[in-house]
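Sync notes, pocket subgroup
Present: LS, DG
LS reminded everyone that the earlier model was apo-only. Rerun requested with LFNQLBSZ included. Inputs:
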Amino acid sequence: MTTNNLSQTGDFLSVTRANEWHLEPFSFSLDNGTQVDVLDTGVIQFTPKNCGSKDIVLSSAVHGNETAPIEICDELIKGIIKGELSLSHRVLFIFGNPASINIEKRFVEENLNRLFCGAHKKGEQNNEKIRAAKLEAYVSQFFNAFSDKNRKRIHYDLHTAIRDSKNEKFAVYPFLNGKPWKKEELSFLLSCGVNTIMMMKSSATTFSYFSSSMFDADAFTIELGKVRPFGENDMSRFEKAKMTLTQLITHDTVNYPEFNFADFELFEVYRTINRTQQDFSFPFSDSAANFTGFAKGELLATDGDTDYFAEVDGEAIIFPNAKVALGQRALLTVIPLQNKTDFV
Ligand SMILES: O=C(O)CCC(=O)N[C@@H](CCC(=O)O)C(=O)O
Ligand SMILES: [Zn+2]
C-alpha cells in the first residue's frame, strides 16, 4: 500500500502500519469537497465543505493490542474517503501507537496513555514520548483552528480492557476540576451501549484528560469490550458504538432518548493504588473481572510490605495490573456514585 492510492482504497490503517513512527504530510480532496489532510502516520483530518458546529477527535490504538476500536475507526475512515459517509463536522482520527499495533502489544517501550499533559517531557526520551508530544500538537491545532466559542469540542478515546468486565462496556469520565458532568454526553454513551461510567476524582496524564482539561472538550476514555487480536472480535458487539459514532459525524445534530439515571450504573473512584515495589501482587486471579466487589477487610493488593484491604463493603476493582512500571497506577477501586446532583 502506497500513500498514492489512499484516495482510492481509503486504507489509512495499512498506510499507518507501514510507517510506524513517521509519515510526511500530504493532502487531497474528495469529490464531495471534503478536504483530507494526512498530518502524520495515524493522524488524518477531515474538513467537510461546511464545517458544521463540532470538532470531533476519535482516537484508537493508543494501546496497540486493543483492536476492536481500530477496526471501527478503520471502517469509518474508509467510508468517508470512499464517499459512502458524508461528514457534517470536522473530524480528526488518530491511530495512537502504530508500532505497537504491529507487535500486537499495549506499547513498545512505555505506556503512551501516561505521557500526555506534558508528562512526555520528563526523563529520557523514547519513541512513545516523542509521539505523545506530536499527538498533543495535532489535537491542539485541530481544536484551536476555530476560535468560535460556540463550537462543541469532543474527544472519544476508544479502548478495550485487558480483563473481562462485569459491565462489559464502560467509560472513564476524566476529572472536570469542579465542573458538572453532562447528561447529554452520558446519553451519547448509552446510545453506544455504554451504561457504566466512572467519575474520576483527580487529574491524570491520559489522552482524554488532556483534551478535557486543556480544551474543555467533552472527552472520555471508552472501554468497548475486551482486548482480542484482529480477526477475533465479534464486531456485532460493537455495532451500537459504530452506528452512534457514524451518526455523530454525519448528522448536524443527534437527539438521544431522554436522560434517566435508572439507565446507568455510575461509579466514583474510591482510591488509586500505585505499584511502588518490584514485589507487587494481587490475591485474586487474572480471571477476576473488572467491577468485582470486595467485602470490607478483604485483601486487595500487596505492594512490598504494604497490604491494602477493602475499606468499605463493595469496593470494586478496575484495571488491576501488577506489571505496570514502578510508580504507576496498578489498581483503581470504585464505589457507587454518592452524589448525583452535580449534573447538567
Ligand atoms: O484493562 C486495563 O487494565 C486497561 C485498559 C485501558 O487501557 N484503560 C485506560 C484508561 C485510561 C483512563 O483512566 O482514562 C488506561 O489504562 O490507559
Ligand atoms: Zn487501552
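DG: The longest helix spans residues 127-144.
LS: Residues 3-261 form a domain with the Aminopeptidase fold (CATH 3.40.630.10).
Action: DG to write up.
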